[in-house]
Structure formats: C-alpha cells, structure tokens
Design a protein that fits this description.
Helix 3 runs antiparallel to helix 4. Helix content is about 60%, strand content about 5%. The termini are far apart. The longest helix is centred in the first third of the chain and has 15 residues. It is elongated. It is mainly α and about 120 residues long. The protein has 6 helices and 2 strands; from the N terminus they run H-H-H-H-E-H-H-E.
Length: about 120
C-alpha cells in the first residue's frame, strides 16, 4: 500500500513540474508569443534552438530599467569603482547608500527581460 501511495505522489509531482522553458514562457505573459516566435524560427537548427532555449530559460532572472535614472546611478558607481585607494567595503556601502537615499525605487522601475524582449 505504501508503494502505491509513493508512486501516486511521485507521478503527481512529476506531472506538475514544469521545465525552466515552460516557466519562462509562462512568466513572459503577453510577451510569450515573441519568445515562441524565436523558438519557431530556430526549430530546424538544433544548435541555435538549444541556445535560444538557454537564453529564454535564463531571462526571468535578468532585468532592464524602464527609464534613464539608472544611468545616473551607473555614473556614480563608475566614479566610486575607479577610486583604487578606497576599500571595497566603503565602495559597497557608498553604493548602497546612494541607491537607498538618492535613487530609491530603482527596483520598482525595472522589468524582467522575458517580459519585454522582442523576437527580432
């Protein structure tokens, strides 16, 4: 009886587990058709299809910023990082301070690449 129960549970988990590609396509929302268009384009080239799948699977973890505020932050970061005589902890703390106090909400102005990347 335990064996049957374990088999049923295992099958249930296996059937409900989606692949990283399925997750990325679902997470893309209305942009899903753009990503599927890329997969369709490379369907006859296994190597390029594998590369496209890899990129799409990893897109949910990468973000883009919706406005130019991030470039001002990058300028400050570049200037701090070029200060060779500053200890890393001071640079880190300074960047965190700038992000928190001067540019709060940078993360709210970001969006996952999987939601905006176009097929072309």
């Amino acid at each position: 009886m335990k064996t049957i129960f374990l088999i049923i549970i295992s099958l249930s988990l296996f059937c409900c587990t989606s692949s990283p590609l399925d997750y990325a396509l679902d997470f893309a929302g209305t942009n899903r058709t753009e990503l599927e268009s890329v997969l369709e384009h490379y369907k006859d080239d296994p190597e390029k299809l594998a590369a496209a799948k890899f990129l799409i699977e990893n897109m949910p973890a990468h973000i883009s910023h919706r406005d130019s505020t991030i470039y001002k932050y990058y300028d400050i970061a570049d200037n701090l990082l070029l200060q060779k005589d500053l200890p890393h902890t001071i640079v880190r703390d300074s960047l965190l301070n700038v992000r928190k106090n001067i540019y709060p909400g940078l993360e709210r102005n970001s969006i996952s690449d999987v939601k905006i990347m176009k097929a072309d």
